[in-house]
Structures are given as structure tokens and as C-alpha cells.
Design goal:
Blueprint (H helix, E strand, L loop, with lengths): L2 H13 L3 E5 L5 E4 L3 H5 L3 H5 L3 H6 L3 E2 L2 H8 L3 E7 L4 E11 L2 E11 L1 H22 L4 H11 L8 H13 L6 E4 L6 H11 L7 E5 L5 H9 L17 H4 L4 E5 L6 H13 L1 E2 L8 E2 L3 E6 L3 H6 L5 H7 L2 E4 L10 H16 L4 E2 L3 H7 L5 H15 L4 E2 L1 H4 L36 H19 L3 H8 L3 H11 L9
Parallel strand pairs: 7-12, 7-13, 8-9, 9-12, 14-15
Antiparallel strand pairs: 1-2, 1-6, 3-4, 4-5, 5-6, 10-11
Helix pairs in contact: 6-8, 7-8, 15-17, 20-21
């Protein structure tokens, strides 16, 4: 190595934000970056005077990523604990010369502070939940939220908890990870988070990572200079990340992000700079990152499809949006909102037949809000008159093996005459009537049966659902539980 090259390498190691180790094939440490001392609890001189075998044996770091590279001959990434109580993500790569291992280069990133921040927000979320479960402030909070939510239906306690958490973290720039099944409304709540934030006057850039071909992903995300590649636009292109300057970048389906782009995105999150394709000058970018997925990212990390260090960077404030079957109180509002949209769009005033509501409330909705809206639009377009009936709804699929919580009566083996629907009280909403009916049925069963398991079998729902409903209505079983 020339003196010039050695000087460049020394500058990289000395100024790196991450902690670099250069290790000889026998495990002796040849050089480390100065910042490693604070993480591993030893001075740079002491580290360079020992080996990775000794460091692992003494508990300075566990396990040694360099030893794993020596054993396998392949790049390795793992989570490491240090003797100072820190948790780091360590990566190491072998260096070969004529098929002979000549060195191992490793770098580690201290994730302890980030994990502490995650724990702090998890505690905040639990405190919100406990506050709401006490019940005395839920109605007031829900009314206040309803006035602020532009185009969302938040009636259920679960969604109130989610909305309150998002409103609390919105003024910060912390990364939010939206989790939940397809169609639960992750994009809608990401937009609401943006509206609540201090960046609300800036752009909201919505990117579906699964919709961009991998060959175009880097140029779409980071942009490019004129002539950067064959077919490039003459004037170049501003990437999606730059377009989010001063606002929010929302990456939906983040689990589909190609590994090569994951590496560049991680660097952008860490440093706050991007480099367009074909350019050598980095550009500073200022944006708030919100991501969403319906996949298990930790499982994708184990499969080698998602970087562990990026996962930790994104999983600062995880927010799980519950599926529609767990928040049925929101269905009436969602239905009315969609019907209103359709009526305005097509210039009609159609409404649902009374008998249709039971089917809508009793379905599992595997596609969640998106499926509900699509079913209603199809029914609206199929209805010849101004009343939408069962035949326009068609067959509504059920994806869950457990019967619906709202199908309270066991099916009769023989056809029976339909009973008249219970009348609505004066000024009583549909949600209130359903809650009243549910209360009455549960109250009757609490006097007849002796356990929540017996009630669950009678209603055809799960025992946890019974416990939740009894608590919701303030009911208790008359006879002692078995």
C-alpha cells in the first residue's frame, strides 16, 4: 500500500461514525477507530495490543464477528454485547488475496441509545393504553380526536389509542413504523401524522416500494444527473427522497426494498445526505421518515432479506393498526363515509337496506377497510334503485376460522321465520343499538352460565373475546367461575 493510500485509509478509520476493526488472519487486532474505546471499554492502544480471541474470552465483546468470518470465510452480520453493557450491530467482511485470507475488516454501530428510545416510547404507549382503559377520559379524547381527523373513522378504543399515540409523537422527527394487515389504513394514518406534524406545510411523498422495478429503484429514490446512464432524461431527475425535503417521506411496503437500496437508505438516515447517480457531490436532505409494512420484518431479517441495522433504525416507534374485525365499532362510520363519497361522485342518494347491516357487521373482512370500500362501491354500482340490498353485496368471503364476535346466536339447523329487527330508540345510533343488544344478550347469559368458556361456546366466539366484552359492559357472571 502506498503512503497516499495509507493516509486515506487512516483518515477514513479516524473519522468514521461507525467503529472499525482491522484484524489479521490469526486474530490479532491491527487497527481500530478511536470511537471504539467508548463502546468496548478499552483504549485504542490496548485494543491494538490484543486479539479478538482474547476480547471474546474476557467478555469485552460477545460474540466476535471477526472469528465467525474466519470460521466461515463469508461476510457476517450479528448483534453483539460489549463488556460496557452496550448493544451493537457488527458486520465483518473477509479480505482475500490469491484465495488466501489476509485480513478481516469489521464495523459496528452502537444501537443502545436507539433501543432506549424505543423502550421509552413503548412505555409511553403503555401509559396511554392504561389511561384509556380507566375509561374516564376516553369519550372526551375521542371527541377531541374526531374534530382533528380529516378523513378517518376513529370510534373504537383500539383506534383511539393509536391516534393518540400518533398525535403525541407527530411533533418529533422520530421514525414511525406502521404495522398491520393489508388495507387497514396505514397510508391514511401516515398522512394524518404528517398533518399533525410541524412539517405539515411541506410535501408528503408516498412511495410504494413494491410498485417500483428493482432496476429503477435507485434512480427513482436518489435521482440522477444528466447522462448518468443510457436512457437517462436529458435534464437529470430529482429523486423521491429529495422531493420530500422539508416534509415527510412515506415508504409503504418497506419489506420489499431491495438490499442494495437498503444500504443506501441506511446511510441517508444516518448521515442526512444523498448522492444522485452519476454525481460525486453529496446533498443534504431534511425529511421525516415514516414506513409501513404488512410483513414480519424480523423474520425477513432472519431470512437475510432485510438488513438488521436498518430494521433497528426503522423500528423506533412501532405502531400497529388493528384489523377491522377487531374494531367493528368503526364499521358503521366507514360505511357511511364511503356511501357519502359514492353519492357525491355519481350524483345519487343511495342508502343501505336495514337488513344489510348485520352482514356488514358480522364479516371478518380479510382485506380490511380497502375490501369494505370495494364491496360497497360494487354494490352501489350494481343497485338499480336507491336502496342497496343483499343481492347487490354478493357473497362476502370469510377468511377466519373463528366465527364473528357479533354473530351471537347459534345457527339453526332448520329454516325459521325472520324475527323483526329491534327498533332503534329515539335519537339512538346504529352503534348504540348494537351495543345495547350485545349487553342484553351477555347479561342474560351471565345469569344462565357459570364460566366465560361456557358463554364463548354458546356464542361461538373466543373466550378472550367474552372477557373483553364483559369488561366493556361492566358485567360479571352470577355464579362462581369453575
Amino acid at each position: 500500500m502506498s503512503e497516499h493510500d495509507a493516509l486515506i485509509l487512516k483518515t477514513i478509520i479516524d473519522t468514521a461514525h461507525d467503529h472499525f476493526f482491522i484484524v489479521a488472519p490469526d486474530g490479532r487486532i491491527q487497527d481500530v477507530s478511536p470511537g471504539a474505546a467508548a463502546v468496548y471499554g478499552m483504549s485504542r492502544e490496548a485494543l491494538c495490543a490484543t486479539s479478538v480471541q482474547r476480547l471474546e474470552a474476557d467478555g469485552v465483546l460477545t460474540p466476535s464477528v471477526s472469528l465467525e468470518v474466519m470460521r466461515t470465510g463469508r461476510p457476517v452480520q450479528l448483534e453483539q454485547r460489549t463488556g460496557t453493557g452496550r448493544r451493537v450491530i457488527a458486520q465483518a467482511h473477509p479480505v482475500f488475496e490469491d484465495e488466501r485470507l489476509v485480513a478481516v475488516v469489521s464495523r459496528s454501530m452502537d444501537m443502545t441509545d436507539l433501543q432506549l428510545l424505543q423502550q421509552e416510547y413503548a412505555l409511553l404507549q403503555r401509559r396511554f393504553s392504561e389511561h384509556l382503559r380507566r375509561g374516564h377520559a376516553l369519550e372526551t379524547d375521542a371527541e377531541a380526536l374526531e374534530a382533528e381527523l380529516d378523513d378517518l373513522e376513529v370510534k373504537s378504543q383500539l383506534m383511539c389509542e393509536v391516534a393518540l399515540l400518533l398525535r403525541r409523537v407527530a411533533p418529533t422527527d422520530a421514525t414511525v413504523l406502521m404495522l398491520g394487515e393489508s388495507g387497514v389504513g396505514k397510508t391514511a394514518f401516515a398522512r394524518q401524522l404528517h398533518r399533525w406534524s410541524s412539517r405539515c406545510e411541506g410535501p408528503f411523498i408516498d412511495v410504494n416500494c413494491a410498485a417500483i422495478p428493482e432496476s429503477l429503484f435507485e434512480s427513482e429514490m436518489f435521482g440522477y444527473r444528466p447522462g448518468a446512464f443510457s436512457g437517462a432524461a436529458p435534464g437529470g431527475r430529482v429523486g423521491l427522497i429529495e422531493q420530500a425535503e422539508g416534509g415527510t417521506l412515506f415508504l409503504d411496503e418497506i419489506g420489499e426494498l431491495p438490499l442494495a437500496v437498503q444500504t443506501k437508505l441506511l446511510k441517508t438516515i444516518q448521515d442526512g445526505f444523498i448522492t444522485r447517480l452519476g454525481d460525486s457531490a453529496p446533498r443534504r436532505v431534511d425529511f421525516r421518515l415514516v414506513v409501513a409494512t404488512n410483513q414480519n420484518l424480523s423474520a425477513r431479517v432472519e431470512e437475510g432479506l432485510f438488513r438488521l441495522d436498518l430494521y433497528y433504525r426503522l423500528n423506533v416507534i412501532p405502531v400497529t393498526l388493528p384489523p377491522l374485525r377487531e374494531r367493528r365499532e368503526d364499521i358503521p362510520g366507514l360505511v357511511e363515509r364511503q356511501l357519502g363519497r359514492l353519492n357525491r361522485r355519481y350524483g345519487r342518494d343511495k342508502m343501505l337496506a336495514h337488513s344489510v347491516w348485520q352482514s356488514l357487521m358480522g364479516r371478518e373482512w380479510p382485506g380490511n377497510v380497502r375490501e369494505l370500500e370495494n364491496v360497497l362501491e360494487r354494490a352501489w354500482l350494481s343497485a338499480e334503485g336507491d336502496v342497496i340490498r343483499h343481492q347487490e353485496l354478493g357473497e362476502l368471503p370469510r377468511s377466519m376460522t373463528e366465527p364473528s364476535d357479533v354473530e351471537l346466536a347459534e345457527p339453526s339447523p332448520q329454516p325459521v321465520a325472520a324475527e323483526p329487527a329491534p327498533a332503534l330508540g329515539e335519537d339512538e345510533s346504529l352503534a348504540s343499538a348494537l351495543a345495547r343488544t350485545e349487553h342484553d344478550i351477555l347479561a342474560e347469559l351471565c345469569g344462565e352460565l357459570d364460566s366465560t368458556y361456557a358463554i364463548a361456546r354458546r356464542l361461538g366466539i373466543s373466550q378472550p373475546s367474552v372477557v373483553r366484552k364483559l369488561r366493556k359492559h361492566g358485567l360479571r357472571i352470577a355464579r362462581a367461575e369453575a
